[in-house]
Structures are given as C-alpha cells and as structure tokens.
Amino acid sequence: MPGATKVDFYLLGSAENRARLLTACRLAEKACEQQLRVSVLASGPPEAAELDELLWTFSDRSFVPHGSWPADPEFAAATPVLVGSGSPPGTHRDVLINLGPNMPEEPATYARICEVVGAGDDDRQMARSRWRSYREAGFTLDTHDL
Description:
Layout lengths: L5 E6 L5 H17 L4 E4 L3 H13 L8 E3 L4 H6 L2 E4 L10 E4 L13 E6 L3 H17 L2 E6 L1
Parallel strand pairs: 1-6, 1-7, 2-4, 2-5, 3-4, 5-6
Helix pairs in contact: 1-2
C-alpha cells in the first residue's frame, strides 16, 4: 500500500557525486544503527563499486556491515546493508536509498525510501519527476535541505 511507505528527499547543496555518496553512507549508517535492513540502489555498476569502497572508509568512528548484490543468499541474509545497481533483494525492504535517476521498481514494498539529490540541474529535474510520480501514487513525502 503506497500510503505506508514514507519517501524522504535529501536535497544537497553540492552537485559533486561524492557528496551524494557520502550522504548515502551516512543514511545507511544511521539505518544500520537502528537495526534496519537497507538496500542502496546505485545508478550503475561503477557507482555501486565506488559506494562499496566508500562504506569501508567514510567514517573513522564506525563500521557499516555491507556487501554487494547480487550475492549468495546466505551472505545477503546475514548482511544488514546491500549495495547494487539492479533490483534489490526482497530481504532488504526496511530502507531503500535511491541514487538512481528513476523511481525504484515496486516502491510500495519498502517501509522507507531515501532519495539523495545533488544540486545539479539534471539531478534536481529528475528528482522533481520522481517526486511527482510518488505523489501521484499516494506516497507520504518529505524534503530535507542538507
């Protein structure tokens, strides 16, 4: 049911891709601390690999247990945060962090969706389109200026 899924748009002041990735890392860290299962949807395999590497190094004070998908089902089930660029596994539906340009497939299957939006014109334009699609589908929406 769309009304049960909360969608948060995080609007960044920077157009740099690294800012988007660092924000995704912080969101994944916070969700992991709350013992939620997280999927991070990258825009493609290169961004997924960059994010996987960044999750190891972005913070000196914590560790975000994560892995890439697709993965061995047993490994995926034991890993709180999964990063990939394809359809996320059904086991990780508490939080979806979307870095892709489109609305994710089956958005109503997630409890929460975090849309990370850079300050570039293209990023903002694609985010407006996703916002309209979520709103038309009846999702609960909120924005956060970072």
